[in-house]
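Form P-L/3: holo structure prediction, ligand S-adenosylmethionine.
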Amino acid sequence: MFGNLYLVATPIGNLEDITLRAINVLNQVDIIAAEDTRHTLKLLNHLNIKKPLISYYKETEKIKSEILIEKLLSGKNIALVSDAGTPVISDPGEEIVKQCIEKNIKIIPIPGACAFINALICSGFNTREFIFIGFLPANNSDKKNKLEEIKDENKTLIFYEAPHKIKSTLEVMKEILGDRNIVLAREITKIHEEFIRGHISEVQEKINEARGEFVILIEGTNNKNAQKEFLNNLSLEEHYKYYLNKNLDKKEIIKKIAKDRNKSKNEIYQYFINY
Ligand code: SAM
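OUTPUT (holo model):
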């Protein structure tokens, strides 16, 4: 029989956030695959758990996955952990998960801490619809392109960022997205946990010392609603002219007006029949 792969969440700061199930699984598996074995060893020592550790980090994901798959196929149970939080979320693991699916090896999640979920629930922003982006590209122009792509999203936007880049990233965000309403969730579950709220410029003033770990949350834009409201306040003739100025033909204009006003195309067509 094959072994199972357990994806075990570990604390993101406060060690009390380890779950009873995570402790049991870490105690029972044959091997623990860890992003940084020295880091995980500290947690295991704290929990009094002694297990063989194998390092599994981004640069070696492919080769290490193949080694771990062999062990799973031979019946060993393996737990995958990252340095903090839920493995595979902006952390290594995607590769082994894919390979397990191919080989019909069972993958079992052991839920627990995840920085962005805890940042989101304290944000006060829309939690029904959100986009988790994680880390933006390191290259400045790729970073700007990514922000351009999501600029008009009305869903909450969630990012991870390294402490030493937080200031420059906020500056780029302000440039591309405008001085939007944001929350910086800092040091979640740790002694200096805080949620810094305000427009980007206000938050920038509040974080002279960008120390600690941060999740950046940006309130979704309501540009689309504002645009819809603007168009609906026009007369039908003005609405028509608005699209005419955008060089649309009559058929396209009628379709767009019907959509903006939640009317049938035929109703709008009848109105403009002699246009
Ligand atoms: N897998 C992790 C999770 O489940 O959240 C995320 C790992 S990712 C490599 C690390 C990033 O997560 C940090 O740069 C920071 O943006 C965020 N992060 C992790 N711990 C945090 C904490 N305690 N408070 C705020 N942000 C945290």
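COMMENT: The radius of gyration is 25 Å.
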